[in-house]
Amino acid sequence: MSEGHSFISAQVLIVGGGVAGLEALLALRAHVGDRVAVTLVSQDDWFVDRPLTVAEPFGLGLAARYPLPEIAAELNAGFVHATVAAVVAAEHRVGCAGGPNIGFDSLILAPGARMRPPFADAITFGVAGSGRAVRDMLSRLCSGEVRSVAFVAPSMTGWLLPLYELALMTGRELARSKVEGAQLRLVTPEARPLALFGDRGSESVGRLLATAGIEFIGATRATVQGGDLALGATGESVAVDCVVTMPLMSGPRLAGVPATQPDDFIPVDEYGRVEGLADVYAAGDAVDFPVKQGGIAAQQADAVAAHVAARHGARVDAAPFRPVLRGMLMTGGEPRFMRSGVPGADPDIPGALYPLWWPPTKIAGRYLAPYLLERSEVEGLGRPDEGFTDIDIPLTASTLPG
């Protein structure tokens, strides 16, 4: 038990109602039950299963939406609808835009990243209205008004798998609608398709792109200028009718919280402790880990929650964050289950048609995924088959961006 803190009366404040925030809340309840008071602060009232929003423009599913106040109440936590603007760590309080100030014994920052469009003349998937814009693009492709689309990754920071999904599902839709002659390109700074998943995983994705008729242009940073795509340092120009891209991401810029340069992410150690701030932790897209993905955010939150729980007297192994990358690639057909690879780690082929973790959801979180599965209307998943093995393959320094 930490000096000066009562196990019963400890106040844990979680900022953010996304994957990291909810995973931290669930993990804390698993470790300490109701023996600490928890308050969830969020500027949103809903948790959206964002990885599934990529399927919505294609009519392949709807992203589930869950009310945060209801989740908080179910987990015996308080809920405050507010935007945290500042952290005063020395006084153990946060300041919200327009008030109030909220005190804490331990603070977990999980506000997510700020997102902005990288190009003026492009559809930036993930920002407001982008789903409708993709649906309109599909309609124009099928009518012949649009004949060429480039799917462009603007940066290596973040999570590029949704861009591949958009490209593959677009190719699938064109084939289903018997549209011929349309040109689809995927342009990325990665040397190979989804390089984070290793050589064999990348080869698997490359074959999917080729089968869908999508030209892969790797090791290339592109810019968009009107109806032209400028490729790489040479600036070679390619005319396209439409560009689909992902947002650029940067940190939350909270007063009183340190930030890396130039992107303002929060620097943390392997337990999620924020540099220079006592009793303050951070997890998720807001921190300075280069891969921004729901499963990674959940793992960061697990490490943070265990350390916070141990700090307040729980008998729990506070293990450091050791990233394991898992991903479900939606193709318009059967999803492919991906995992990061290291040589000789496992004989199974990355990109399998069967799940490599359980439950087989887009967010591979230890606590959040089963919780959401129980609340969902999905039938037929139940318990994993006998002999199911949960594969954990760690990311390594050699596979991370940069």
Keywords, please?
five-stranded parallel beta sheet; 402 residues; alpha/beta; disordered N terminus
Verbal overview:
The chain has 402 residues and is α/β, with parallel strands linked by helices. The chain has 7 helices and 22 strands. Helix 1 packs parallel to helix 6.
Number of helices in the DSSP assignment: 7
Strand content: 15-25%
Q: Specify the overall morphology.
A: elongated
Strand order of the largest sheet: 5-2-1-9-20
Structural class: alpha/beta
Uncertain spans, ≥5 residues at pLDDT below 50?
Answer: 1-7, 341-350, 378-394
Order of helices and strands: EHEEEHEEEEEEEHEHEHEEEEEEEHEEH
How far the N terminus sits from the C terminus, by CA atoms, comes to 40 Å
The major pleated sheet works out as: 5 strands, parallel
Number of strands: 22
How would you concisely characterize the structure shown here?
The protein is an alpha/beta fold. The chain has helices spanning about 20-30, 70-75, 130-145, 160-175, 200-210, 295-310, 370-375, and strands at about 10-15, 35-40, 45-50, 65, 80, 85-90, 95, 100-105, 105-110, 115, 125, 150, 185, 215, 220-225, 230, 235-240, 240-245, 250, 280, 325-330, 335-340. The longest helix has 18 residues, at about 295-310.
Write the layout of secondary structure elements.
Layout: E1 11-15, H1 19-32, E2 37-42, E3 46-48, E4 65-67, H2 68-74, E5 78-81, E6 84-88, E7 93-96, E8 101-103, E9 106-109, E10 114-116, E11 123-124, H3 130-143, E12 148-152, H4 161-176, E13 183-187, H5 198-211, E14 214-217, E15 222-225, E16 228-231, E17 236-239, E18 242-245, E19 248-250, E20 280-282, H6 294-311, E21 326-329, E22 336-339, H7 368-375
Parallel strand pairs: 1-2, 1-9, 2-5, 9-20, 11-18, 12-13, 12-18, 13-14
Antiparallel strand pairs: 3-4, 6-7, 7-8, 10-19, 15-16, 16-17, 21-22
Helix pairs in contact: 1-6
